[in-house]
Amino acid sequence: MENPLTPEVLADPVALTRALVDIESVSLNEKAIADCVEEVLRGVPHLSTHRHGNTVMARTDLGRSQRVVLAGHLDTVPLNNNFPSTMRGDLMYGCGTSDMKSGTAYALHLAVTLPEPRYDVTYFFYEAEEIESRYNGLNLVAQAFPEWLEADFAVLLEPTYGIVEAGCQGTMRSVVTTAGVRAHSARSWHGVNAIHAAGEVLRRLQTYEARRVTIDGCDYREGMNAVRINGGVAGNVVPDHCEVEVNYRFAPDRSPAEAEAHLREVFAGFEVTVTDTAAGARPGLEAAPAKEFLAAVGAAPIGKLGWTDVARFAAMGIPALNFGPGDPNLAHHPDEHVEISKIRDGAATLHRWLAPA
Ligand SMILES: [Zn+2]
Fold first, then answer.
1. Are 149 and 197 within one domain?
2. Of 76, 121, 34, 98, nearest to 338 (Cα)?
3. Residue 1 domain-assigned?
4. What are the pLDDT tens digits along the chain (357 aa)?
């Protein structure tokens, strides 16, 4: 295949978005797109380029006092009659237009066209963000070459519709168990009903007042919800066991340990088992490159409520945020599209931030 990422295409973030969308790259099928990206970057004299699996990293080494990361994933969710791209007026339709080849195009465009950025920049084009964490390119790099990720600040170019979404909330999955004593339902007074006991668990959730926390000007709204309930033996048996699965989304001022302590306090008197946890990330907007980034955007940041790869950087002590042109509500949607004007606005913002003064 001839590389569609020609110099002319690389010079224009809109044309580049379209070219990237038109290289099919459903998760675990990123070899072709990674080959194209790697070939381009290896030809750029001001970058040193490395590859791990289907993740490509390129960096400047200008001796600047600060280093920033720009990162975009190369993969998409499965196609849904939305490949290749199509244009309708100011809108580009297709799988990956919003999530997130328009954002990834920024990183590739700047990598090629900005030989002397104000900070040293590490550009990541990584595989397998849309599937389980064990395939995630940033996760694999963090294990194999953690030094590649060293930086003072990171921007993940995920869809945020042109605003800054900072940090992210943590998430904890747990199971609250109630116990009882089995009996025939015809003589139920010999037993203790574990499903009835779960009523108290649900009552505590229903009356639970979730916190709202403001950190660095960003609002985070917590939530604690029953997401599944399991119990019952047979139609004529008083059940002795019931499980309520509870998902707790917690603001990034709480560590996973603090979140767990809070959860146990809420369900005092019940057996609580934590099954899965992912830490949140503080917005970290105090770092100098972050402040300058916000000034370039010129609009107030908001807190990210879902979990994103921002938390991987936060876990390494690197403040990170999300910024991209796509509409996050259209990600993974068959009508996925991106506005051309949003691509141009965001490209101008990043250029203002990174171009030498
Ligand atoms: Zn994404």
1. no
2. 98
3. no
4. 799 999 999 999 999 999 999 999 999 999 999 999 999 999 999 999 999 999 999 999 999 999 999 999 999 999 999 999 999 999 999 999 999 999 999 999 999 999 999 999 999 999 999 988 899 999 999 999 999 999 999 999 999 999 999 988 999 999 999 999 999 999 999 999 999 999 999 999 999 999 999 998 889 999 999 999 999 999 999 999 999 999 999 999 999 999 999 999 999 999 999 998 989 988 888 888 999 999 999 988 998 877 889 988 988 889 899 999 999 888 788 899 999 999 999 999 999 999 987
221, part of any domain? yes
- Where residue 96 sits, what CATH number does that domain have? 3.40.630.10
Contacts of 204-212 with C-beta under 8 Å, sequence gap 24+, read 204/266, 204/267, 205/246, 208/266, 211/251
Please tell me whether the peptide bond between 84 and the residue prior to it is cis, using omega within 30 degrees of 0: yes
Please tell me whether residues 189 and 267 are part of one structural domain. yes
Active site residue 75: yes
Centre of ligand 1 from the C-alpha of residue 158, in Å: 5
Residues 29 and 100 in one domain: yes
Structural domain that includes position 195: 170-278
In the annotation, is 240 catalytic? Answer: no
Question: Ligand 1 centre and the CA of 352: distance in Å?
Answer: 24
Look at strands 120-126 and 153-156 and give their pairing. unpaired
174 and 164 in a common domain: no
What tokens were used for 126?
């990584």
Is the domain of 141 the same as that of 187?
no
Catalytically annotated residue among 30, 99, 127, 129: 129
Does one domain contain both 49 and 137?
yes
Q: Identify whether residues 70 and 123 lie together within a single domain.
A: yes
| Residue tagged active-site, from 30, 38, 75, 127 | 75
Helix (H) or strand (E) holding 350: helix 340-354
- C-alpha to C-alpha distance for 202 and 208, rounded to whole angstroms: 10
